[in-house]
Amino acid sequence: MTNPERVARLKETLDRRIVILDGALGTVIQAFHLTEADYRGKEFAQHPRELRLNADVLNVTQPHIIEDIHRQYLEAGADIIETNTFNSNAISQGEYGLESRVGEMNVAGAQCARRAGWRHP
User: Fold this and answer.
1) How far apart are CA 11 and CA 25, in angstroms?
2) 80 forms bridges with which residues in the sheet?
3) pLDDT tens profile 55-98
4) Beta partners for 21?
5) Closest CA to 51 of 93, 111, 110
6) 95 found inside a domain
């Protein structure tokens, strides 16, 4: 399906009913009780700053978790899922020393959402 087709489909759906947006990704991520090592993954194992609670870095280090959360929202009835990129900007990531990786986090976040959507009927 092309983007214009997707937009047309969304408009048709909006004309018929209220659409449901996914919920708070950060709250669901917290339920996983991830460790510092989980946030770091292989990609940031030697990074000099603490990364725990940087949800956006998980797009790169633990994409399967982010995809699973997106999938859960879709299975619960969400029509629209957002990307896990709320803090994927230079100012927010500067606190973690990852401002140079913002582009990678944004692309990875979009890919996680897209993969979850493709796998959902």
Assistant:
1) 25
2) 21
3) 999 999 999 999 999 999 999 999 999 999 999 999 999 999 99
4) 80
5) 93
6) yes
What 79-83 contacts at long range (C-beta under 8 Å, 24+ apart), as own/partner pairs, is 79/13, 79/19, 79/20, 79/21, 80/19, 80/20, 80/21, 80/22, 81/21, 81/22, 81/113, 81/116, 81/117, 82/21, 82/22, 82/25, 82/113, 83/109, 83/110, 83/112, 83/113
Residue 14 lies in a domain: no
Instruction: Calculate the CA 54 to chain-centre distance.
Output: 12
Which amino acid belongs to residue 101? R
Q: What residue type is assigned to position 8 of the chain?
A: A
Question: Does residue 102 fall inside a structural domain?
Answer: yes
- Residue 85's Cα: distance from chain center in Å? 6
1 in any annotated domain: no
- The H helix count followed by the E strand count for the chain is 7, 0
Two tokens, residue 60: 């790169």
Q: Which domain holds residue 84?
A: 20-119
Number of domains in the chain: 1
Q: What is the pTM (predicted TM-score) of this model? A: 0.90
